[in-house]
Write a structure and sequence with these properties.
Length: about 550
């Protein structure tokens, strides 16, 4: 998860006085607007919860009104603080921290009271809809558990699935993002551009997990519906004979047999992304990318109409990073409407926290990370609270360093609006590899404990008590005590994952695919533990 404070805005109090607020972006997307004193209140509560000695120092208060230069310095200091704070896995998994982000998201979008009940629709891949009444600020994992409880999916299978924002384009289903626990799905969906649905999809990559899911009737139905969807849209490669065989099994309702056949097909279990561009084999190459089977699959259409295919294994990726590339004016300077921070140093992260190794005297806590400013212009203006902040277009890039051959490490860059989702897919594959290696098991709802409350300070200085009421007990099933699942006869009709560090740079600073390993050595990188699995014999 990457945080940035790219700009500020001038807001008005009810009495007409003005104050400066800071726009927080998470994973390259605007999330909320907060004041200095709100972040200070969060810091004080985290000190009580986690201990002050382990937290980065909070930028000091000023007695007098800030000048524009001082405001910019404070913005930089607050951004550095929250970047360092987000490097601590205890903070990312803190209910106080995530509760603050959801509350700030709610206040920024002015959705309503913290416990106001709102209706929300969550769709299954089959098109069936689960409608629930929830608090507007209910966090993602709580909604996931509530949905799975409603459809009677066993607790041990809940976190093999996740909630995603999806949209339809020309009869195709586009997965936009995976919802995470620092946000309210209701608010995120309500204020997203375009019409998007919240959808329950499987969230694992290891095909052997299918067997555990298929043993449960509801799990079998969910997996079957998603597989049928993938076959019908060509995400799974089949020939005419296989299509006839699958159609016959579908007509008989032989779901397990249908899955047994589909699981042998190419691209089963892959997530297909929208067409994008990459710099391999040449810059600007159009490519169709899918993620699955511990790899990224590239399909490139040649001028003669043929298709060339290549696979990049996650075990041969030493590291990767996400980059937000800002549009620049012809003069080469960032436009005044885009005021983003260009950074010379980055943290490239590609695995879970435990066991991560770092290079060049940098570490995962971010304490030694230096942020070099190449642009010091702060965008300020007066906005209404419901005015959209993130107005400008940005380019997202995923770059990974890949072991092409024994002595050839090469950077490959993908430019895609789904770059963060691709990164999360790689993160999930690495997580599964290391969890299997170390004997870890997927968590269950009963292992999640959320207790106590958060004192959330609003922008006007007043405070409200936000109850963190998930106690690890199973959520009650909607619709009475019936044991019949709403999708029993399905028709065909939190560990907070750390994303790779997101940094900003201009077009001229973008790494090229020909950049050598040594030339990247001055950038702080966190290596991929799964890279160790690859030995010389494999090469």
């Amino acid at each position: 998860m990457h945080f940035s404070i790219p700009d500020t805005q001038e807001c008005k109090e009810d009495n007409g006085s003005t104050y400066v607020a800071y726009n927080i972006h998470i994973n390259g997307v605007f999330h909320c607007t907060v004041r200095y004193r709100q972040l200070h209140s969060l810091h004080e509560q985290l000190k009580k919860d986690l201990g002050g000695s382990s937290l980065p120092p909070f930028p000091p208060k000023k007695l007098l009104a800030l000048s524009p230069v001082q405001t910019e310095e404070r913005r930089i200091s607050l951004e550095k603080y929250i970047l360092q704070l987000s490097q601590d896995p205890r903070v990312l998994n803190s209910d106080v921290f995530n509760g603050f982000l959801v509350s700030a998201q709610n206040e920024t979008q002015r959705v309503g009271g913290w416990q106001d009940e709102v209706p929300i629709d969550v769709y299954l891949i089959s098109g069936q809809k689960v409608t629930l009444s929830i608090p507007a600020t209910l966090q993602t994992d709580d909604l996931l558990e509530k949905v799975c409880s409603h459809i009677h999916l066993p607790n041990e299978l809940v976190y093999y699935f996740a909630l995603f924002l999806v949209k339809k384009e020309e009869n195709d289903l586009i997965v936009v993002k995976r919802l995470q626990d620092f946000e309210s799905p209701y608010i995120s969906q309500r204020f997203v551009k375009g019409k998007q649905r919240i959808m329950l999809r499987k969230n694992y990559w290891d095909m052997s997990i299918d067997q555990a899911v298929m043993r449960d009737r509801v799990g079998l139905n969910l997996l079957y519906a998603q597989t049928v969807h993938d076959v019908e849209r060509g995400w799974i490669l089949t020939n005419h004979e296989i299509q006839r065989q699958l159609a016959a099994l579908q007509a008989k309702g032989a779901k397990k047999e249908y899955l047994d056949v589909a699981r042998t097909m190419k691209y089963y279990g892959y997530l297909k992304f929208q067409r994008c561009t990459c710099d391999f084999p040449t810059p600007g190459t159009p490519v169709l990318i899918s993620a699955g089977n511990r790899e990224l699959n590239f399909r490139i259409e040649c001028e003669d109409g043929s298709v060339k295919e290549g696979n990049f294994k996650v075990t041969r990726m030493r590291c990767w990073r996400i980059t937000v590339q800002e549009p620049v004016e012809d003069s080469g300077k960032p436009s005044s409407s885009n005021n983003r921070n260009n950074r010379d140093s980055s943290n490239s992260n590609s695995s879970m926290q435990e066991g991560n190794r770092s290079t060049n005297n940098s570490n995962s806590s971010g304490e030694n990370q230096e942020i070099s400013r190449t642009t010091n212009i702060s965008r300020r203006g007066t906005y209404s609270n419901n005015q959209e902040i993130n107005r400008h277009n940005i380019n997202l890039e995923l770059s990974f360093e890949y072991l092409m051959s024994r002595d050839d490490m090469r950077w490959i860059t993908i430019t895609s609006p789904q770059a963060v989702l691709m990164s999360m897919c790689l993160q999930g594959m690495v997580h599964e590899l290391l969890s299997h290696k170390r004997g870890y098991k997927v968590r269950t709802p009963s292992e999640r404990v959320r207790k106590g409350s958060l004192s959330y300070m609003r922008r006007d200085g007043s405070s409200t008590r936000v109850t963190l009421n998930h106690t690890g007990e199973s959520l009650s099933m909607d619709g009475g005590s019936s044991s019949q699942s709403p999708i029993g006869e399905l028709s065909l009709r939190r560990l907070s994952e750390r994303l790779n560090d997101l940094h900003l740079l201009s077009s001229s600073d973008r790494p090229s695919s020909t950049t050598s390993h040594n030339s990247m050595a001055n950038q702080a990188t966190v290596e991929n533990d799964a890279f160790e699995i690859l030995g010389d014999d494999t090469l």
